[in-house]
Hints:
InterPro entries: LicD/FKTN/FKRP_NTP_transf, LicD_transferase. The protein is α+β, with helices and mostly antiparallel strands.
Amino acid sequence: MQLRKRYLIPRLFVFIILATLxxxxxxxxxxxxxxxxxxxxxxxxxxxxxxxxxxxLANQIHTILSSMKIxxxxxxxxxxxxxxxxRPLPWDNDIDIGFVGEGVFAEMTLSAFFAPFEAAGLKIQxxxxxxxxxxISKPGLWLSVDLxxxxxxxxxxxxxxxxxxxxxxxxxxxHQFPAWLVEPELPQLKFGFFxxxxxxxxxxxxxxxxxxxxxxxxxxxxxxxxx
Length: 227
Ligand SMILES: *[C@@H]1O[C@H](CO)[C@@H](O)[C@H](O)[C@H]1NC(C)=O
């Protein structure tokens, strides 16, 4: 009894430190634009050739998803790109697309879902277990398109995958939003040489994805905002 009491205070102390650290880490935004040392922003301005290739890749994926009748829309920084400059943000390393995880997608196996992308010669990085997402790229292109499945949980769209459990607070803070924002019919915006769906309500969705700076485009450190 005496022994347990003696260790109670240090244990409580360690617990509080770990809990604080967990909450602190969860409240960080780990998006690419935040320019973390383990994934620094490589360039403030992708070349026109790179952006063209990225847009072609995105259009290819958009066409495949449409042919599979999987509802999808631009997500995260790509919404800013479409709204502000009708193309991807110049420093972005990818185009983000959200899609409905229920219905058609839920009824097919992952390999059946991958098949048309593979048939088109695209490279697939399966991050399904980790973060309920799929990264698609082209051989020779460092930029990619990230697909994120979203599921309607009683009116809130949520992601899946281990990360969404381990970093539950982070996912709550940066990766969920009200379902009405992506209910049909979605508005379309020009994105490079094609049109693609975006969430409803203008920049309303940004309040949920970037709660601490949703009203502005935040360039990575050292980069200028696009005009
Ligand atoms: C995109 O939408 C605009 C406005 O609705 C339309 O004028 C234009 O033709 C569309 N472009 C393409 C490539 O479908």
